[in-house]
Predict the structure.
Amino acid sequence: MLPSTSTSKNTDKIRRKIGSKDVVVIGAGHAGLAVSYCLQKRGIDHLVLERGEIANTWKRERWDSLTLLTPNWQCRLPGFEYEGEDQHGFLTMPELIRFLEGYADFVNAPLRTNADVTEVNQNTTGYTVKSTQGEWTCRALVIASGACNIPNVPRCAEDLPSDITNLTPHDYRSPDQLEAGGVLIVGASSTGLQLAGEIQKSGCEVTISTGEHVRMPRAYRGRDIQFWLDRTGILDERYDEIDNIKRARRLPSPQLIGSHAPQIFDLNRLTNGGANLVGRMMGLGDGRAVFSGSLKNACVLADLKMSRLLNTIDDWAEKNPQAFEPPKRFEPTRVEDRPRLTIDLKRDNIKTVIWCTGFRPEYQWLKVDTFDHKGRINHHGGAAKAAGLYVIGLPVLRKRKSSFIHGTEDDVRDISKHLAGYLDDRAIR
């Protein structure tokens, strides 16, 4: 029986108020745009919602001197790649922004910018997505909003004295904004070391609070470390082949900078310039910072893991002889026999604390039962616990290289294939 005229008119009103798509993609960063490219290739009707503008994060939430940690020859996305002359260089932020804007033009996604998603709910046929630009229903949803939305600052930061500047990598832009005096950087992964290096060059005394970290040379045996990670197959290791996938996804980013000089940028280089090393931050109180006594153990463990990586590279190079430089090993991380366990912030003239303690996604708008006990989306290689819900752009999503721009391509091709199968299956039902 055909619906009555009055019912059809009411339905038309609802459709004008609430749009309908097969798929809604939340986020138009490199991952969201790559998803759109693959969905278009499959002829899947979809919409991409972006809270700001293209490359919004890189334009608004990163420091001025930041460069990519991967060389330009790895700057590729589905159907698109870096075509400049400096294949072995590293994109600066302005260059990366132009690269992403170029990809957006190439993909020509069905895109709504300045569409901040305010709420997502599951319904009987899929999902309802509410945003500042309208409301849509969809049969499947892809979350591509990124893994670095909110700085992961420990609670003890609230106990920092009010006369000390409290910054995160989202707030920091350059040493020019810092008050003259000492700077305590909490965290010794890629961000912490990069900021420590440039702040130290500006003349400030730097103290680095160091916990677990991944020490890695920028170059080894005459090739960039990314060459070796790619050729040895480490980057292509799948999530279901990794013994402890939860731990792999929590590992800090390696101590790299976007430059071929020096060969290794590590804690030794910073202490050579006068930086002070202390252990992991344990707490703040009465104007004093307290640190763990495990600094030496953390550094020894990082040195050991780097040595294992170099052994793997050497084994591969021996089986695939080319014009490589001879093997070498780097000096162990130097740590004082009795590192300081406390710092009196006022007496040591600490004027700024920068929390380089990682980031976490922001999902307050996602009202769907798909989270684990720590508030992370529970997914299996990008397919979430909730049917028809997918996530992209998270660390070690499907392979170890998922965190890098070039690692997105394999992930989105797999996920778009799975998503297309899901839609077909639902249509048959």
Summary: The longest strand covers residues 134-143. Residues 279 and 294 are 6 Å apart (CA to CA).
